[in-house]
Design brief:
Layout: H1 2-26, E1 36-40, E2 55-58, E3 62-70, H2 71-74, E4 82-88, E5 94-104, E6 124-132, E7 144-148
Antiparallel strand pairs: 1-2, 3-6, 4-5, 4-7, 5-6
């Protein structure tokens, strides 16, 4: 009778250990993407509920340059077209990177800095250019220029 009771206690303890290990595995954070943490919204040992954001992460393997083109150029540009992006690095060196046009806005905008009436007659279109960031030199917020082929 004691051996049956001991086996029951041992198997029950193993089951409880398996449950605890499963709960611990579910508490482990695994990011769905590789990247750099930009903002942390919670700190260690804080309580959060399901669906609360913990951090903001950026995948920096591929960056996007947002450029603006004149209305006359928009007819010649197509998604998938190649471009060369020129970036000025912090040390003053200009780096050229190959890129690909991924998106062209279907609505024209007038730049906010334009104040004269004759300049407001020239709307521009937003364009997104994907650039591979293989060496990690391109940072979020950097400015650049683009040359379309």
């Amino acid at each position: 009778m004691c051996t049956i009771l001991n086996l029951y206690i041992v198997s029950n303890a193993r089951l409880q250990m398996a449950q605890v290990n499963d709960q611990m595995a579910k508490c482990r954070l695994i990011s769905p993407v590789e990247g750099i943490v930009l903002n942390k919204y919670v700190t260690e040992k804080e309580t959060v509920t399901q669906g609360d954001p913990l951090y903001r992460i950026a995948d920096v393997r591929q960056m996007f340059l947002c450029a603006y083109i004149a209305a006359q150029q928009s007819n010649k540009l197509r998604p998938g077209q190649s471009a060369t992006v020129f970036l000025t690095l912090p040390d003053g060196v200009v780096k050229s990177c190959p890129g690909t046009v991924t998106w062209i806005s279907d609505k024209a905008v007038i730049p906010k800095t334009v104040r004269t009436k004759d300049k407001r007659q020239n709307p521009v279109y937003a364009v997104k250019i994907a650039v591979a960031n293989t060496d990690g030199l391109i940072k979020t917020g950097m400015q650049g220029n683009a040359d379309f082929k």
